[in-house]
Design goal:
Order of helices and strands: EHEHHEEHHEHEHEHEHHHH
Strand content: 15-25%
Structural class: alpha/beta
Radius of gyration: 17 Å
Number of helices: 12
Shape: globular
Number of strands: 8
């Protein structure tokens, strides 16, 4: 059974989409069958992996609201072991349409339960909010990765997210775990970056990944070419960091051989 990992933080600009597409691509390169689900109406993961959101006829939205079979909408990407469930702007309307549905928090769980047998890892890119779609993702997931940028106000809003996770654990998904807190946008030259790393490690100790994602031009550029960074700049700092993160997650989940 595949592991479902949501990438969530209601704060925008912390590297959620960058992490979702590049972690998924790195797991694929390590020969894990991987699926990335774009659950963000901005559809940046969809376009970042080479698909034009405007040409998407059915997305995760149609699966959750209209009962479209998710296996029929899976798209291939440029990497052999990496597939995509796309998003488009209509996902914005899904929250409104789902308000009157029964078990509305569990729609995504119902939609993707059949996929766990097909993949080693399923990564969900959440939108920057704590709305119904993000709650659906956290209800469907086995664990959550929380990206935190190495900048001023880094910990702002983190308490709110951890509180939401606690509520979901209590009411909807008792098995939800925190896979880890991921430090992103690290600039070795800035004292502030180093202070944030110290502060986050002090507060959250073993919950913080060893891998730190650097601020990196290639990481920012690769989505505009419709490629994950590992296909765009294989030897760059960004690629190496996400490969290390993938190895760390693989090892943590008992896949020792590949992670070595």
């Amino acid at each position: 059974m595949g592991k479902i990992i949501a990438i969530a933080n209601q704060k925008g600009g912390v590297g959620k989409t960058t992490t979702a597409m590049n972690l998924a691509a790195s797991l694929a390169v390590l020969e894990f069958k991987t699926l990335v689900i774009d659950a963000d109406p901005q559809a940046n993961t969809t376009s970042g992996l080479g698909h034009d959101p405007k040409s998407i006829e059915a997305s995760i939205y149609e699966c959750m609201v209209d009962g479209v079979n998710v296996q029929e909408i899976i798209r291939k990407t440029s990497l052999e072991n990496l597939d995509l469930v796309p998003s488009h702007i209509d996902l914005v309307g899904a929250e409104v349409e789902m308000i009157n549905l029964e078990n509305r928090e569990e729609k995504m769980k119902e939609v993707i339960s059949s996929l766990r047998e097909l993949y080693d890892f399923i990564i969900i890119d959440c939108s920057p909010s704590l709305g119904l779609i993000t709650i659906n993702a956290l209800t469907a997931a086995n664990s959550v990765i929380i990206p935190v940028q190495c900048e001023y106000f880094a910990l702002e809003g983190l308490g709110k997210l951890l509180n939401t996770i606690k509520i979901i654990q209590t009411r909807l998904n008792p098995d939800l775990e925190i896979e880890g807190i991921l430090l992103t946008m690290y600039d070795v030259r800035l004292r502030l970056s180093n202070q944030v790393v110290e502060e986050v490690r002090l507060h959250f100790k073993n919950m913080v990944f060893d891998t730190i994602i650097p601020r990196n031009v290639r990481l920012s550029e690769s989505p505009s070419f419709g490629l994950p960074v590992i296909s765009f700049d294989a030897d760059g700092k960004g690629s190496i960091a996400y490969l290390n993160l993938a190895g760390e997650i693989a090892k943590k989940n008992g896949h020792h051989k590949v992670a070595e």
